[in-house]
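Question: Now follow the chain.
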Amino acid sequence: MNLTMTGIDFVHAPLQQRERVALVRGQVQALLPQLAGMPGVLGCVLLATCNRTELYVHSAADVSPDPLVMLARAAGFDEAAFRGLSVTRTEKACIQHLMAVAVGLESQIFGDDQILTQVREAAALAREAQATDSVLDTLFRRAVTAGKRVRTEVKLTGVPTSAAAAGVRRAERFFGALAGRRAVVIGNGEMGRLAAAALRAQGCAVTVTLRSYHHGETIVPAGCDTFPYDRRCEALEGADLVVSATTSPHFTLTAQQVAALQHPPRLLLDLAMPRDIEPAAGQDGRVTLYNLDDLGDLDDSQIAAAKRAAACILDEEQAQFDRWYAYRQALPVIARIKDTALDRLRFDHAYDALYCDGDMDGLMELAVSKTVDLLLGGMKDLVDAGRLEACLTHMRKGSGR
């Protein structure tokens, strides 16, 4: 196979570098046709999350594209600046990495609830853009299956399974307890709603800032108050903590705005990519600023065993994909085996009389094809193109071909 991926993730690149190549849904949709149209590309999928930007490419056998170069050209960033901050994986390493990402083994927070949805959506966007092919589509489907199995077969109790939940756990550690604290959540997207609901569950009085409100359409977690986004600094005055989780290209909270508050929140949690809160705000001695890179597994009591169980599931699903791909690669050889088997029958003088009848010739062709399919269909897990080539060579001995 000719599978390659390049990733820029939280393990190898600091947040200030990752946010330079962070992509929102609309940008991914715009880039996919460009990437798929590059020379030798049979299919591609672009996975963009808070912690990673990864391009997966399936290319023609005689082409070896560099996904980092491809992405840099399409997205307009300096490839050289990210060469030392990225990781390129090929073939089985590429497959294993995607599986590990989908099951949460490569997340800052093991068991991250959002990553599976993000992997599934990346494949869906590639299909919509007609950028993917059967190999990548099957690989991503198998990775999603692995992720689903981990969610249902590996039990985690009391362990944060999202950046929002980890942020709330971090806040709980910071304050000692959250009951009775006043929190402001900037952003009412998925991450913001998760954070607001988790804070409310811990006994916080939560206010969610909204750019607009439409009755019956705007979803706000139960028990939370709302406040206009444009007046957010009023809501921040005297609050205990603020969580910002938007997709805004601009800061939702600047250092100047924090400095202007008489009683700023003691804790600032930035769960956005690119960042929502200006880093310089953390230099104010009255506040503590945490961002995505400050989150992680806070409770290791269950993590080690759960990761081992997830790794076993990953191995099983990768083996399933490997078998599918081996059979797919063998299909051209199988077609030649059918042709050779039919030719051997035709060269057998015992069947000369039968081949005087054109209809019988068609029936013999169908019979050979069905027989080979039945034989190899029951051996899909064992089929290997190299072994079949050896079989074909043996069949051709004495056939004159």
Notes: The chain has a mean pLDDT of 85. The longest strand covers residues 41-48.
